[in-house]
Hints:
By secondary structure, the protein is α/β, with parallel strands linked by helices. It contains nine helices and twelve strands.
Amino acid sequence: MRADSQARNFVYGAENRISNRVKNYTNRMRKIFCAVVAAFLCCCGFSYAPSGGNARNVPVIMYHSVCKTNVGEFVISPDSLRADFEYLKKNGYTSVWVRDIIAFCEGKGDLPPKPVVLSFDDGFYNNAFYAEKIAAECGMKITMSIVGSYVQSEEGQKKRSPVYSYLNAADLARLYGGGRVEFCNHTYDMHKSSPRKGLRRKRGETYSDYERAIKSDSEKCRALVQSACGYRMNVFAYPFGCYSKETQKILSDMGYKAILTCKGGINVFKKGSSDGLYDIMRYNRHGKADTKEFFKKIKVL
């Protein structure tokens, strides 16, 4: 009897071991399968982050100058810009402003299924001469980040060119009145590498001095734009993507609700959550890249 009992226990134990091994193997294979599917979807341009209901995937494209000459890392031709806009429309994307994203995150608005932000840094005159016109023809909204000192340097200039000029106060008023452009603060006079690079805190600078410098400069640009068109900016764009660990709090305390960086990546925003608003990623659009290849590379399909 004892031998029979031992035999039965041995059989039951073997069955349990086999069953556990099968379960473990099945779980491993399930994880591998899910990983393979996720990788395949990612390679095909799909994201497994949700982009419906209460969440949206939002690519932000970072443009600078739009010009027929000197095309390169920070200059795109008008024809290539038009090709970009037409590509996005064809693939179901709808342009939105950063303030639309803020409203969505605050639970006060919605976003289309495939939103995209088209941002233009530095306030070049050619953004009005070319970009705004192309945006109007393609039914797009655009976001312009303004450097206040550049605007003031254009006041009284009689000869202006899309090659080298910047927007002036009258341009800001016209653009904002046209209903297709929003403005972001790109500093008044900190878009430079010295004595500090962008908004980076200087070596040995006290926090109070750093805070005072940021607030003074930012408010000067804010007041200039508000005087020109009546709009008080609440979105900031870091020059060169340079900042320090204290910068976000300073800008947040000033009432800024979102910050544009120069990091590459697709943003995921959730309705009712401010996560990601102070670290909005953008892809720089190199002017020599082919439209389809550029968007394929950043998985905007």
